[in-house]
Write a structure and sequence with these properties.
5 domains; 635 residues; 14-stranded mixed sheet
């Protein structure tokens, strides 16, 4: 055999091995990590739409309790260990010979030799939170050996095991693709509603502009909308649906969705693997504003601006439908779970070329768009129809006066549409009703942008936005608290990256060391932080909406629960800025205190179990504003 042929053969073999190392292998390569061989139940599946990310694995129920043995899913070695009071909590990462790895999260505790190794490192670093990378030979396991015990650590909302399978590039893949016998699923996805949105100023849905919801009814083995929907121009479809597995009530995610228009596939979404670097794009996949308002997670069945997700196998015109005729068009949406259970949504769109002006619209779906909303670069305004005067609206923009006629009428209201890309309005006169706006700038999504204003300055890094932002900035005084409230757009607009904001308050704040920025949502406050430079305060955030400046002068609360020579346990909390850190020493020596932020508990774990605590105990607890509570006693 010639040398070139040998090299070519070796190259092919090597690439086949690499592909096999990354491709899911059905069968028994992986063992179910909880109660293998027995019936198991899931609380969550891969790809579920969470508030800010996709769920990256499966959540295995543990009978509502902690301490179930967790088994190595395949031969391998522990390559990473992480302990945190938030996120995944106590977590093990195991690397396998085929190049993949498995992740076991929210653990109660590790196997003894791992636990001893971790505790020794925590004492050496004097930190509860820790991340370690053992050598390949340090903790080696065979498939089926116990590596840990299930728990409720980190940000878990209840006892369970979060389990992931990752490919050689550390991308989560769908564990259910391995069709574990421990899980039974013969239930098709459930569909609740369909929403249709106008995608530009000339588009109409049910003869109106905006976003409209329709209830899906189960009829003869499929879901239907019981009336044809009049549309015109470019529209986008969303679906509110979930999957369910046998024996549990949990509402899980749907892996595969495909949309057909007149029997032609125009959109396909398959959440079988993704990269952690792209997961925040979920805010462009969901209808984010509607999710914040209602907690309902609609899945857009089109690829919106700023959506850079990689699991769209095929699409036509990004899934956006454009209808400019007067014909009927059949829409079919197929939803499948990992086990092949399938549901079908079917409804009809009717093209209407001519807009209808009148008050006789008979079918009104649930309208989720109101006056003052911005939808796809369009500002929606409305006013009551007046019989005694003209219904023409006057909009003032760029020092010019614009006379605007109603785009349509509905229920004794005239609706006006204004293209914000044309000009940002200063104010409007809607049939003698004055409205003022606070638009400051048009911020492009893909460029770095700086905004300077007498109320504050804002820096947008490149790609901080998913879509064009029509920036508004306003200041008011809360009547109840007399606090300054700075409103930057609203909480319904998502950000991909953190932005930098410098507020310029008019009120004085004598104790700047304990004064910071807080975001406000209803009656809730959330600490944002900030650094004072003179009379200005700068902070980073990944949220828009309302911000206030407040002083936290209250020290944290420390409540002793158990204090003896063998065990120490406290409840610690802070009412305003939140806890920053804590430190406990006995006789001047640091003591490891485990922390459960959900229960606000810390409890001791000795380096040497037989050695009693003796001497002066000092517990220092600090909040984010710098207030400190010191608790002392003698043992």
């Amino acid at each position: 055999m010639k040398l070139n042929n040998i090299l070519l053969f070796a190259f092919i073999i090597l690439n086949v091995q690499l592909l096999n190392a990354q491709a899911p292998k059905p069968g028994n390569y992986y063992m179910f990590p909880i109660k293998p061989g027995q019936r198991n139940f899931l609380a969550g599946t891969m790809g579920e739409l969470r508030s800010t990310h996709f769920h990256s694995g499966i959540d295995i129920k543990t009978e509502g309790r902690e301490g179930l043995p967790v088994y190595a899913s395949a031969d391998g070695y522990v390559s990473r260990i992480k302990v945190s009071s938030s996120g995944y909590g106590n977590t093990l990462y195991v690397t396998h010979p085929n190049g993949t790895s498995t992740v076991y999260a929210h653990l109660q505790k590790f196997k003894k030799d791992i636990a001893d190794y971790v505790r020794s490192a925590q004492y050496k670093k004097e930190s509860f939170n820790i991340e370690l990378f053992p050598s390949k030979s340090q903790f080696v396991f065979k498939q089926g050996e116990v590596i840990a015990y299930s728990g409720n650590s980190g940000s878990s909302s209840g006892p369970h095991l979060h389990f992931e399978i990752r490919d050689a590039n550390q991308r989560p893949v769908n564990p259910l693709a391995y069709l574990f016998d421990e899980i039974i699923d013969n239930i098709a996805p459930t569909v609740r509603k369909v929403a249709i949105t106008s995608m530009d100023i000339n588009a109409r849905v049910n003869r109106q502009f905006g976003r409209f919801e329709y209830t899906a009814f189960r009829r003869g083995g499929k879901y239907i909308i019981n009336k044809s929907i009049p549309v015109q121009g470019k529209i986008g479809i969303e679906v509110l649906a979930h999957d369910q597995l046998n024996g549990v009530a949990n509402k899980n995610g749907i892996q595969f969705i495909e949309v057909f228009l007149d029997s032609v596939s125009i959109f396909q979404q398959n959440i079988d693997r993704f990269s952690f670097s792209e997961t925040r794009n979920i805010l462009a996949l969901m209808d984010y504003g509607h999710m914040v308002r209602t907690r309902q997670r609609y899945n857009k069945l089109y690829i919106d601006d700023g959506n850079e997700l990689s699991f769209y196998d095929k699409h036509r015109n990004r899934g956006i439908i454009e209808i400019n005729d007067e014909k009927e068009h059949l829409v079919q949406v197929v939803l499948k779970d990992t086990y092949g259970n399938e549901s079908l949504i079917q409804f009809t769109l009717v093209g209407e070329n001519q807009p209808i002006y009148g008050h006789d619209i008979q079918f009104n779906p649930l309208i989720t768009t109101t006056t003052g909303d911005v939808v796809e670069n369009t500002l929606i305004l409305s006013s009551k129809i007046s019989e005694n005067q003209s219904n023409t609206a006057t909009i003032y923009a760029n020092r010019m006066k614009h006379e605007v006629s109603p785009s349509y009428f509905l229920n004794d209201n005239a609706y006006y549409l204004w293209n914000l890309k044309y000009a940002l309005p200063d104010s409007s006169d809607l049939c003698d009703r004055k409205e003022e706006y606070h638009y400051g700038a048009l911020v492009p999504p893909n460029s770095e942008f700086n905004f300077y204003h007498h109320l504050g300055d804002i820096h947008f890094p490149r790609k901080a936005l998913f879509d064009t932002l029509y920036l508004t900035l306003n200041r008011s005084i809360d009547e109840n608290t007399t606090q300054e409230v700075f409103e930057i757009n609203d909480v319904y607009t998502p950000l991909r990256k953190h932005i930098n904001i410098t507020l310029k308050p008019e009120q004085s704040y004598p104790d700047k060391r304990r004064t910071a920025v807080y975001s406000r949502f209803g009656k809730s406050y959330s600490y944002e932080g900030g650094t004072w430079i003179g009379n200005k305060i700068s902070f980073r955030t990944r949220n828009l909406g309302k911000f206030t400046i407040a002083t936290d002068s209250l020290e944290p609360v420390v409540r002793p629960l158990i204090i003896n020579r063998n065990d120490l346990k406290f409840q610690i909390s802070d009412a305003m800025s939140g806890l920053k850190d804590f430190r406990l020493t006995v006789d001047g020596k640091w003591v490891l205190m485990n922390y459960d932020h959900k229960k606000k508990l810390i409890w001791s774990e000795k380096l040497k179990k037989g050695l009693p605590f003796k001497g002066e105990l000092v517990l220092r607890v600090r909040d984010n504003a710098g207030n400190e509570k010191v608790y002392k006693t003698s043992l």
